[in-house]
Amino acid sequence: MQNDKQRIAVIGFGAMARSLQASFRRAGDQFGVAATLVPEEFAPTPSELGAVKLFNDVSDLIDWRPSLVVECASHDAVRDYVPALLRKGIDTIIVSVGSLSEKRLLDSLEAAATEGRSRLTAVSGAIGGLDVLRSARSAGLSSVAYTGTKPPSAWTGTPAADIVDLASLSQATAIFQGNAEQAARLYPKNANVTAAVALAGIGFEATQVVLIADPSATANSHRVEAQGAFGSFKIELQNKPLPDNPKTSWLAALSVEEAIVRHFRAIDV
Q1: What are the start-end ranges of the E strands in 103-219?
Q2: How many alpha carbons lie under 13 Å from residue 185 in its C-beta half-sphere?
């Protein structure tokens, strides 16, 4: 593994990637986003990029040999780019954890990482308590449920807009009830946390999910409840949205930073 903390590349250059870049600068530039992979039709302008090197093709990014790549773009980006990176021995962190609900993709990523002797890390995102789920899983979990509540504006551009009039909601309304596989597929940009919970616990089909649009909500709320041989637990977080993207919890962006720090840390505690 390369250990150059200044040779980190991101896939995508939207709100989360720019938040990461700005946070690194505020922290004193110990880490640096040096390159980005973005399709030519979505490429940022030179003024937006600054000193960040732009690649439009994954093969060119591979030739550049980044020390670490962080995907913060979309499910399609995971499918289209990440297997090639892993096969070439480039460790990768993914934000679009919901993409792993597709078993064929998950299997291909595992095979690519094995072939390239690389490592794929899925961030915890906006939720906590995943260490408890992972620990309890070996003894047996009987149920895991996730409830996500956000202001109506956070659900614009999603299937929720076809179900209810988001702008005129006067009370909390469930806009989805089902399992984590369905939630990750229908709400890929809003519900990646459901995938993280499913992967840590009892899987996508068995994890129950409720998504709520609440006009009185001033933050994004995430609650996980689990029962099993270990006992039971409930954890709830009230997360502020990322300033440049109300669909994303600020904590999700912070979890990416933590994953990068842990990647380069000599001792992981």
Answers
A1: 120-122, 141-150, 173-179, 208-213
A2: 11
- Domains of the chain (ranges plus CATH)? 8-122 (3.40.50.720), 130-247 (3.30.360.10)
Helix or strand (DSSP H, E) at 246 = strand 245-249
- Could you give the CA distance from residue 97 to residue 86 in angstroms, rounded to a whole number? 16
Can you tell me the distance from the alpha carbon of 208 to that of 147, in angstroms, rounded to the nearest whole number? 8
Q: What is the β-pairing status of strands 120-122 and 92-94?
A: parallel
Alpha-carbon span 13 to 72, nearest angstrom: 8
Kindly give, in sequence order, each residue whose CB lies less than 8 Å from that of residue 119, ignoring residues fewer than 6 positions away: 91, 92, 113
Q: Are 158 and 245 in contact (CB under 8 A)?
A: no
Residues 149 and 172 sit within 8 Å (Cβ to Cβ): yes
Confidence (pTM): 0.89
Strands 231-239 and 220-228: antiparallel
| Helix (H) or strand (E) run with residue 8 in it | strand 8-11
Residues marked active site are found at: 222
CA–CA separation, 77 vs 92, rounded Å?
12
pLDDT tens for residues 192-239?
889 899 999 999 999 999 999 999 998 889 999 999 999 999 999 998
DSSP percent split of the chain into helix, strand, coil, nearest 5: 40, 25, 35
Strand ordering across the sheet containing 173-179: 173-179, 208-213, 141-150, 220-228, 231-239
Q: Are strands 53-55 and 33-37 parallel, antiparallel or unpaired?
A: parallel
What is d(CA 25, CA 8) in angstroms, rounded to the nearest whole number? 14
